Each structure stands twice: as structure tokens, then as C-alpha cells.
Amino acid sequence: MTNLLKLSFSLAALLVVFGQSDASSEDENTPAPAFPYLVPDEKPDRPLSTAVQRNYDAYSSIRPEQNELFTQFKYTKLKGFDYNDGDGTITRRDPSKVIFANGKYYVWYTCRKTPVKPVGMSRAAEATDVIPSADWDLADIYYATSKDGFTWQEQGVAVPRPPKPNPGWRSVTTTDILVWEGKYYLYYQAFMEASGLRGDYCPVAVSYADSPDGPWTPANKIVIPNGAEGEWDQHAIHDPYPLVHNGKIYLYYKSDFDERPELTPSKVRMHGLAIADNPLGPFTKHPLNPVINSGHETTLFPFKKGVAAFVIRDGMERNTIQYAEDWVSFKIASIVELMPNAAGPFVPDAFTDTEDGIGITWGISHFTNAANDWNRNHSVLTRFDCDLSRNVDDPQMKGHHMNLTPEFHYKQGLSGKQRERVTRETAELNKPSAQN
Amino acid sequence: MTNLLKLSFSLAALLVVFGQSDASSEDENTPAPAFPYLVPDEKPDRPLSTAVQRNYDAYSSIRPEQNELFTQFKYTKLKGFDYNDGDGTITRRDPSKVIFANGKYYVWYTCRKTPVKPVGMSRAAEATDVIPSADWDLADIYYATSKDGFTWQEQGVAVPRPPKPNPGWRSVTTTDILVWEGKYYLYYQAFMEASGLRGDYCPVAVSYADSPDGPWTPANKIVIPNGAEGEWDQHAIHDPYPLVHNGKIYLYYKSDFDERPELTPSKVRMHGLAIADNPLGPFTKHPLNPVINSGHETTLFPFKKGVAAFVIRDGMERNTIQYAEDWVSFKIASIVELMPNAAGPFVPDAFTDTEDGIGITWGISHFTNAANDWNRNHSVLTRFDCDLSRNVDDPQMKGHHMNLTPEFHYKQGLSGKQRERVTRETAELNKPSAQN
């Protein structure tokens, strides 16, 4: 790189021209080269654009393929689950993390088996004890096991709806697993009304067992309560997601808030954190909640000293993987695409209180409206794979150009209304006043 | 919100528990509520998480649908272009911006019409005067016009390859249009060797005309030269993209650099800026180049006081739309998906030296390897639509959940090699040492 010194291009002089002479401390007669061809590993001591500064300050590498928290996602259809020909009477969704025990993988999930498909949240008043409103109404928590992660055997109900008036009597959904001091804990959304009557309102309850095969004992109490009136999480504690950190239970959750009926969508979604010394509580909500400003369902895993999070679907920072070294202060680590919805990854060190998190390579997620037909509305579980693990180096997961077909793009086409607007706009250009 | 004062939840006390008491100036006996249910429009005077601070500091709205620089993209197949049944002998790619003149839209683009499909960059030594290496080798600049933006009539060659040794004798590609003081200027990549022999090396040349219908006079000189040896843009000045700002020509371009043959992909791509008082130069490269740290082809448009840019495909900030109020300091304005490649938008105020840019709603982009078959390698032009205009409010463009089908996801499946790795990893878990 010694050739650089020979260049006669004066950076200092140019900075004067561009009115940014204060950005350079060099003598104006010193020739300064343009940014080098080989990108320096360390932030160079020269004026840098705002964007190039981010290369050094915000990311572990400027190359996505060298960034440990960048990945593509690949999907595989699961074997072993029956959906009654996808007629809407059976749904499986919102899987827990996957754990490995007794020589097999375990996953828990929301399962609805009802005589008819859901009527829909907007018609929740028509829901009965056997007719569901939402896809996750009148559901129980089931579980399944697998030797290979692709073919699963449904083992039946783990946690049924408890009798009224216990929390969850209407539906128990969206569970996640904690292993703590040799015991197993399932946290779940505990509905006490059909979703859609007022919103999607619920707190979180918990059941526990000595074995992942159960039997499960419900605590029959609310373990993560809704916030007080006027607080961001007053209506919903969704997607409880426990990890172990710093000798405590760190449980992340999502809430829907800022409801403004005049807007579409009417609500925003963010994630909070609640911390406990004991799996049955009390949980203390973090004073800086919400700690993630976008996203939908919760998916997190220990990574190095900190925790990484999937931020999917909603909010300005959707389609990102974020990282918080202190488990609270989340920043964007990478921008990704085709993220799994409601992912429950296999997190080998979820409960080991690691200070050197390894990351993940796969898990179970779901597709909602899997039939692409609301008259057969149901969800299906799927497997996703990725490379977010420090133990794996899979270049096939690190490509950053998805060459999707023209046909795929044309399916994302203009509506008739949009086509009309376009025609109108072109007509405007032809008016004499618009001609230049 | 007066109820909030009644809450007994003490934020100050909690901050002490969490070791962050310095974050609060309130008396520890003062009850402090959690974050409010209705998100304050202005940044509230209370401790906020890093992520929620970004809501206020980094984005114009926390709701993507209210963010002027957030959009979905929709695609429509163009009528009027023949591709010889997609056999690889005709390609159209890298469209210019679209302009409106003489009662119709104009677009210029790279067009290759060769007796055979490209041999590929890795076999560039086999290229001849009639056998192309890359898809854009042995190309000329064609143009087409349209009354509605959907059906186009190809008008033929605008700028042909000039005779050797003029810049571009091997191929003229990836053009863009400038309208300046009543004249028209086409900037383009001027190849003097088959792409793939050493890389994708070229400078930028220019032709000019009194009418968008030509005839075009080539300046027959390099107008944006490659950087000096050792500089980031020493090999490639790609995708020249002129706009008018501050009474000058602001021409953005892309370069490939940091070539490290041991890596895949071997190069990184960023964008620079060159500024001129005269369309034929001289252009002065900005001393803070590169000004965009990711991306592939250049697509920009005036927006309010500043300029917005598509950052597609490559780099850590791919899949974003960025904004620079000063036309240099780019920051992420939104995270988007299914972005158009090599987009040439219709930018009504591209050349008006506006200080109040309106934005864009549509343009022409391309699909590479459109046949999804390298033996018929060619590219096709397509139309994209979006809502990045302050004159349009199209809620159908602002959705933030694309419910792509399970079948689509399963096409993004595991390779055989990946499946083998997964099997191996599960086997590892079954070893006695891995059992807990």
C-alpha cells in the first residue's frame, strides 16, 4: 500500500472544497488517497462517510457471509403430522424451543382440534364452547418427539385447558419450555375469553413436571400479569420465552399496544423482559421495557456474552437479527429475509447459564393460513434451518442474493385499484400544464 | 393518562435494583409507571431502552405504514419485448431512469443480441467478437418508449459500441439519463475488454443529444475515470446515476473492490459520488467516498431536502432504503424486502434541482437469469411499483407481513450436503458424553 503515498489527490484540499475542512487534521499540502482498495480491518484514521463509519461501529464484518449473526433460512416440510386434509379443523402453531432429552427431540405447541374452522376474530361473538374465534382459540398444548428433527410423533396433550375459572380455561397457547434445576416448566398464554371479543388479551400461566413426558401440574395462577391500566402491556403478555442468564430466569415476551382504531394495522408490537429467581415467580418486569422496538413472536438465544433475537414481521426493524451484550440493549446485528415465524429453535445452551453462547442452526416454526384460504384457516408446523452457530460454518447459508424467479415476483402484482391510480397518474402527465 | 400517577410501581426503585439508578433523576419514592400504552409522539422524558430510543432518533414513525420511505414492491410483466423464446441470445437489463417527454415515457437499457448465449465470465477467454462472456458483454444501448408504462415499443439502438479503441468498443452498458439545460446525456459503462478476463473492469463514458430520440454524439472520452492504483474504485466505475442538486450534477456510482480470491463472494460493493458543473466533466469524486456501505446497482431520487437510495442485494445494509439530507451522509430509513434489482425509477424531479423532492411510485428493473437456466442465460426488463412518493398514499403498498405460501418456503430447502450435516449433528447429541 506504499503506492498510496504517491498519489497527488489531496484529500485535505478537497475537504476545503466540500466545506468539511474541519474533518481533516492533515496539512493541506499532504497528498491523501481515496479510500483504499483493500478494506482495512480496523477503522482507518481518515475522514469517513457516515455509512462507512457504520461498517466499523455497527457490524462485526462488512461481509454478510463473515457475520456470525447473518444467515439465510431454509425450510423443510415435517413428516408425521395429520391436518385432516387441511380443512381448518386441526391447527398446530407457535412451537416452543426444541430440547433434546432421553435420546430424542421434544417440542410443545398450540394445537386446536375443533369440529369446525375458526369463525375469525372479527366474528368472535359467534364463538361458542366448540366453535373457535381465532385460529388459536379453544386450543390445548400438545407435544411431539422426533429422533431426527424431520419426522415427528405427536404424543398427545401436555397441558389441557384447566377448568373454569382457572387461567387458560378458554385456551392455552403459545407455550415455551424452561429446564431449571432438573425440572421442566411450560409457560403459556392463558386465555379467559375468546380472542377477538375485546382484542387478544391474556396473561401468562405456567405448569411444571419432573419429566418432559409429564405429567404436568398447573400452578393455576397468573405468573406474568398484565401491566396496570395505561401501561404498554396492560392487555397482552404474549409469547413467553424463558432463558437462563446470570443465575436467573430471563423471560422475554411480546405485547400489542398503542391501539388506534383509525389505523391499519391498529396496534404496534414490541418485546419486554421479566426476570425471576424462581420459575413460579415473582417475575419483575424490566424498567426499560420494551427492550425490542419491533417484531412479532419471540425467538432468542444466548450468543457469546449476550443474547440474540429474531425481530420478525412488524415494526421498523422487522427482518433483523439483533444482539444485546447486556441482555437489554438490543442493536441490529444483521438484516435478513424470509425469517421463520414464531420460531422455536433448538438452543443447546438455553438453560446452562452460559457466558459464551454458541448459537443455533435449526428449529420449528409455523406457517399461518397454510392453505392460503381463510375458509380452511389453519396453521402448520415446519422446520427451518440456518447458520447462526459459532460451531458451524455453512457457506450455503450465507449467500446474500436470492435469485427469486420472475413468476414469483409477478405473483406480487398490482391490484385493480392500484392499476387505476397508475393510469390516472400517466394521464396527469399528458395534461398541457405538466409538459416541460 | 392521569391514571398513570396512581400506579405504585416504582421505576426509580427498580432502576436501583437493576444497577441503573443514575438513569433516573426522580425521587425514589415517586411512583413511576411503565412505558405508556399509547406511544408518545415525542420522545418521553424517562429512561428508555436502546431500542426504543431508536424509535425516536432513527425513524420518522415507529409504524412502517406511516413511514414515507417504507414500501412493498409489486411487479408487472412488460409487454412489447421479444426475447427469442428466452434462448439466451437476447438480453435486456440495467435500465436507466424513466423520463417523460413528447407525451410518452422513455427508458434506455443494455441490450445484447448475439448468435449464442454468453459463455460465462469464468470462461471469458473463449469469448470472441461475436461470442459474449458475460450477459452484458457485446451489448449496445437501446431505448424504448411507452404511452402507459406497461406496453413498450423498442425504438432500436441509441448508443452503439464505438469503433476500437474508443471507450466502450467492447460493450456499452448500464446507462443512465441526465437532462441538463435542454440537452440529454447518457452515461454508461465503457468496456474495453470482455468482462471476466480480469474482472468487470471499466470506466464511464458519455454521449449527448438534443432530443431523447437522438441522434447521440459520443464524447469518445472517459468522463468518470477509475481511481488510482490502490484506491477503492481503481478497477470499476459501475452504474453511473446522475441527478441534479445544488446547481451541479451529482452522479452516484458503484465500485467492486476488496477482492480476496479466497473468499466467496470475493469482492465487496459500495457506492461513491462524483460531482460536476458540466455534464462532460470534469467530475470530482467526493473525498468521503464510499458514501453508501452496501448495495449493488444504484437507484436514487430526491426526497424532501435530501436524496434517498435503494440499497439492494449485497453488504450488511442490503434490503434497506437510505436517506441523506446532505446527499452524502446516508442512514437507514427503512428495512424492506423483494427490492427491484437495478431499478430505474420514474423520478419526476430528477433534474429540477428541487429542494423538496417528491419521491417515486414506479420504474423499470430487471430479472437476471430470467429462465432460471444458465444455458439460456439472459435478463428481462420488468415494471415495479411502490409507494415512496409524498404525492401518493397507497395503503396496499404499506403492508408489513408478506404471507408467502409454505410451498414457496419449501423451494428454499436444504441441500444434500446440509442434510448430511444435520444428521451428523443429531448423532453427536446421542453420544453418551452429550447426554445430560
Oligomer kind: homodimer
CATH architecture of chain A, by name, is: 5 Propeller
Order of SSEs of chain A: HHEEEEEEEEEEEEEEEEEEEEEHH
Largest sheet data of chain A: 8 strands, antiparallel
Helicity of chain A, in percent? Answer: under 10%
Strand content of chain A: 25-35%
Overall pLDDT level of chain A: 91
Low-pLDDT residue intervals, each spanning 5 or more residues of chain A: 1-27
* Number of H/I helices of chain A: 4
The H-level CATH homologous superfamily of chain A, spelled out, is Glycosyl hydrolase domain, family 43
How many E-type strands of chain A?
21
The largest inter-chain interface, given as chain pair and residues per side, is: A-B, 137 and 137 residues
What does the radius of gyration of chain A come to? 26 Å
Task: Tell the overall outline of chain A.
Answer: globular
Label the structural class of chain A.
mainly beta
According to CATH, the fold-level topology of chain A is: Tachylectin-2, Chain A
Distance between the termini of chain A: 51 Å
CATH class of chain A: Mainly Beta
Number of domains of chain A: 1
Protein name (chains A, B): Family 43 glycosylhydrolase
Pfam family, one (chains A, B): Glyco_hydro_43
Keywords (chains A, B): Glycosidase, Hydrolase, Signal
Family (chains A, B): Belongs to the glycosyl hydrolase 43 family.
